[in-house]
Amino acid sequence: MESALLDGLRVVELGTVVAGPFAASLLADLGADVIKVEPAGQGDVLRRVGPARDGVTALWGVSSRNKRCIGLDLKSPDGSAHIRRLLRDADVLVSNYRPGALSRLGLGPAELAMLNPKLVHVTISGYGSPGPKSSWPGFGKIAEGMSGIVNLTGRPDESPLYCGFSLGDTTTGLFAALCGILSLYARDRNGGAGGEVDIALYDVLLRITEAQFIDARDMDCSPVRRGTNYPYGGGRNSHWPRIVTTRARDGEWIAVLVIDEDAASRFLGRSNLENSDGQPLPEAVDTALRTWTATRTPNAVRCELASIGLEVAPVFDGQSLAREPYMQARGDVLDALDPTIGHVTVPGHIDPVMARAASRFHWAELADPEGVDWRAPPRASGGTADAHCQSLFEDLVVVEISDTPAACFAATLFADYGATTYIIEPGAASSNSNVLSPALRTALSRNKHSVEIDSVRDKDAVEALLARADIVCTDVPRRSWADHQLLAGICDRANAPTVVSIFPPGADRPDLWPWSTHPALSAAASGLMTITGWENGPPVQPEVPLADYCAGALAALQAAAALWRGTARGLIIEEPMHRALSRMIEWQCPAASLLGYPAQRQGNSLPLNMGVGSLCRSRDGKYISVSAVGDKIVANLLRLIGGDVMLEDPRFATMAARRVHGPEVNKLMGDWARNYTADELMQLAIEHDIVMGLVHDAREIGQDPQVEARGNLVEVADGTVSFTLVAVTPSLEEWVGPIRSLKQANSAVGQAGDDAFDDGRKSINP
Questions:
Q1: What domains, with CATH codes, occur in the chain?
Q2: 15-28, pLDDT tens digit by residue?
Q3: Model's pTM, two decimal places?
Q4: Which of 29, 91, 169, 332 is an active site residue?
């Protein structure tokens, strides 16, 4: 097997809990030598949080994968000397300590630049810098509330709802890993200087919910919650499309996509469930489906509904994912052997072509710094030139052949950093046409050109464009390329491009996947839906295409690593949407292995009872997200709610007790919060070192002073129309250009012009 893309890259992780460790895990998957620095003696808090067997927790097992761990007291002279020794020889530092913590340790930006001028420091914080909240502590759930995604999840007649995993942390970790590779590329391209890249937890969440800002302006109101939602609906107050979660006869959950009124009518087949306008009532559809499926097996449900054109997919959990033959055959789940706890099912690696061999998977042990060879391995050779460029990817040509958001987003990420990017329309012959909403189409067209294959220089001209391409992003699975009008023989070309293929579950192994391949059902197949929702209620789909955005970013990460390495020609990067999202929920399979049963829905409690937290409502009716992870912050919160008496209550005194009595803690916290206004609660949080945040909708986000200070939202004019879009994320200082243009979703197909087919490499500035 070829060496992994990041073999020879040295990464030092000063990370805790989820975001920083997850970023470093992705780099380790791609072959980097990751040294995780933990507090001496006690180690990372994840060693003690969540389901465990014989002292090994599921969260720690996956977070520490393929890393070397060292315990250091960074405040001691020896610890200070050791960390400087490591950083002096490192390429990347990933950190998510509290704001100011590294500076107090003598490891601020100026000190790091003097210690190692080539070091790329990716720093993750709650709110980023600058801005009035820069010094505030922040956790992932706070960022989710601030970003609008919580407000877009759940039923309209209930409170907003958390996603059932650490969405804010893992998506930020994903983009932080991407940011690290892009920064290495920029470093080597611009003469070898490193620097610091600042990422706020909510930055990334704003980017993956970007359509809400276009929809808010278009609808003259904020998008709304619609229950178990169609992820491409944009929060519009309409009945169709809709996803109905229902149970089969054996109790297994199934997700059914009802795309329109015609599909609903085909199922109902009778007029007594129609309204006065002759249209099926959505509530009637839901009720009828749940009654009908309750008497049938999952296979019977699939076959009968598919025969009338309805899309059906299983709602997997951590246990059924681990047992699913399709997932096992693809390597999306792996059997890992831990010397203490034995065999445990873990999430699969990034595409094995790109990553280290699965046999190298290992749990990380905490090492003593003495007697260990911490010298950096031989460095990987970058493939970039030492010449300053106007934009990061100014000489890169990307071609997009896709009808679905995932591949579009991968192409958009390269376009954001200067790549000349073309959308070939109409897209690939796909069964998933017209998936993108107008708002999504607008957001994903940023900085791209449109080429209409039926009228611009015909097929030969498009062939010439493909011959110039460095990267082709498509939603067409590899098995279909041979019969595709544009992708046939794409890998056989001289100087073949890298092909990024992102597709829903089942598209590459139809023999093992009889269910729907519609991308809207990827969240069901990933395990996300089964852990999102209220206890004893149905699984819930967020009103956001999380699988698409995560798959697009994960594929872009792999392509960027190949570009940095200088080996990007002729690669095939396949990233099924379900696998990408399952990787973000990395704990669900090992947790099921350790517990003997899968994690369940728990409303607005923190995932796996990682701490004390929930949504509360203030006296003035606003929703507040509270997240307390770690003994010190939990103690501060309990003392504020009920004084020392509550802190000493045996139900709440230890982490183990709080896991059992979590609902009681959250109820007491909710009762307490109703005594204060939202502003008063936020002031108390600052004074008592408690992590709280407001739950925003799309309009409130634009009014947040932190969002304004960081320039997260920008106004882009496209002709006579103006749109609110999320700025380029992550920001890489001089390497980030403005959002140059948009191709409006409902406008006529544009034409790129003759320069699209030039042989020379040049940036096109529309």
A1: 397-584 (3.40.50.10540), 605-702 (3.30.1540.10)
A2: 888 999 999 999 99
A3: 0.89
A4: 169
